[in-house]
Design a protein that fits this description.
The chain is of the alpha+beta class. The protein contains five helices and seven strands, in the order αββαααββαβββ. Helix 1 packs antiparallel against helix 3. The C terminus is likely disordered.
C-alpha cells in the first residue's frame, strides 16, 4: 500500500479548510439577511398593531389561551398604574368581541397584512361562536367558546397562528377529554410583539377551565 507524501496530505487538508471557510462565508449573508428581515417584519407589525389597537405594544402584554371549548385572548398593561393603556386595551378588546361575533376580522387582517388561518371558518360559523368580553384590573380579555367541532378547530388554528406570528413556543395538542387549558404568553417586546415568546411564567400553566 502506498503512502501519500506529507505535502499531498497538507494540500488536501488546505483544500478542505478553504472549502469549509467558503461555505461558512456564503451562509453568513443569508443568516444576516434573515435576521434583518425578521426585525423589519416585527417592526412593521408592531407599527400596524399600535395603529389598529390604539395602545403602545411595548407597554402591554398579550396572552393567548387554547381551551377545550375555544380559547381566550387577553391583554394587560405591564404597569398597573398605566390607566391610559388599560383603557385603550378595554376599548379595543370590547370592539373586537363585537366585530368577531359579526364575522368582521378586519383588525387582525390589518395587523398581520394577511387573513389569519381559521378566519374563513370562524366567519362562516359565526352563529356558533359566542365572544364574551370581560374587563380585568389591568386590561381585558375575550373568551371564545363553541360546541361546533369545525369552529373549534378554526379557533385553535387562529390562536396557534397568533402564537407563531409572535414567535411564541409551539402549542401542544389539547387532550380532548381534559378539563384543563394551556396558556401562552407573548412577553414584553412582542405583539403581539415580535420577539421570542415564552410559556406563561416559565412553563405551560394548567388551570381548571
Amino acid at each position: 500500500m502506498s503512502i501519500r507524501p506529507p505535502h499531498t496530505i497538507r494540500t488536501i487538508a488546505s483544500c478542505l479548510f478553504l472549502l469549509l471557510l467558503a461555505r461558512a462565508s456564503s451562509a453568513s449573508p443569508q443568516q444576516h439577511d434573515d435576521t434583518t428581515q425578521q426585525k423589519h417584519d416585527n417592526t412593521a407589525m408592531n407599527t400596524r398593531s399600535a395603529h389598529v389597537m390604539g395602545f403602545d405594544q411595548n407597554k402591554t402584554t398579550h396572552h393567548f389561551t387554547l381551551t377545550k371549548t375555544g380559547g381566550i385572548i387577553q391583554v394587560q398593561a405591564n404597569d398597573p398604574s398605566d390607566t391610559t393603556s388599560c383603557d385603550h386595551i378595554r376599548t379595543h378588546l370590547e370592539h373586537i368581541s363585537k366585530a368577531f361575533a359579526q364575522g368582521d376580522f378586519t383588525d387582525p387582517h390589518e395587523v398581520h397584512a394577511e387573513t389569519p388561518p381559521g378566519v374563513p371558518t370562524m366567519k362562516a360559523r359565526k352563529s356558533t361562536i359566542p365572544y364574551q368580553y370581560e374587563s380585568t384590573p389591568t386590561g381585558a380579555r375575550v373568551i371564545i367558546t363553541t360546541a361546533d367541532p369545525k369552529a373549534l378547530n378554526a379557533i385553535h388554528d387562529y390562536l396557534r397562528y397568533q402564537i407563531r406570528e409572535h414567535a411564541a413556543p409551539p402549542c401542544p395538542e389539547l387532550p380532548s377529554a381534559s378539563p384543563r387549558f394551556f396558556t401562552f404568553d407573548v412577553p414584553r417586546g412582542c405583539v403581539s410583539r415580535g420577539c421570542a415568546g415564552q410559556f406563561f411564567g416559565t412553563a405551560a400553566r394548567t388551570a381548571v377551565a
